Amino acid sequence: MTRFLRENYHTVLFAACAVVVIAYEISEKFRGEKLEDHWLLFFTTNLLTLLALVILVERVLESSSKKELGVFSQEMRILTREMQKAVGILFIEGQRKIFAKVGTLFSEAQNTIKLLVVEVAAPAPESFGEELAKFLAEHPGVVCDVTIAISQPDEAFWKANDKRLEIYKCRGLIGKQFFLHIVEVSGPIVGFNVAVVDAKHCFIGFPPIPAAGQTAEAALIFDNKQKIAEKLAKWLDRIPGKKPYSEVRPVK
Fold first, then answer.
1. Confidence band of 220 (pLDDT split at 50, 70, 90)
2. Fewest CB atoms within 10 Å of the CB: 44, 72, 109, 199?
């Protein structure tokens, strides 16, 4: 982009003047001036204006080679990431990227990790569960509290969670550092997955909705947003009707 401006500064200035002329004509029109009375000046000015804009478009198209366009796109992506970091809010798409970022947030926990999952059994990849279990075992002061809200859990739901719990059970974390609760709701719900780390960082996940043809996953990460995290943490603590997994799990 910088190279383009440096090489075509005269064209850009020409086009800028054209924009000024257009703005002037519009303002005069609203003020009731009859520009047509000066038809020769009016015609010449607009012709030059059109010429300036055509030249600018032509130069832009000429400079948009794949290499230069790729460099420009990369610069824009970097700028976008820096802007997101500056405000402490990240928007992420794709399961792999989401869990990579969530894993980083969880690894910063010093006290608590609180998580609400809606209508899904063990949604994270098994490797994510392994990493979380390893982290908890290495940090005995950190407690992870997971709540799953679901309607009409079937046998597949219970088996999926049984398998995932084995990861934590074999490390002796169940009931000490890892807690799983179930909230049974009256009907199917479409909601957000929520996670809060130390009432400091928080995550709001937007799960895919296959029935609506929407298959992509996305998430908002609030990094070092204590006020938001504190409110979400209190909200998670007040979820009514949640019961320990062992109490609601049907007898095998």
1. confident
2. 44
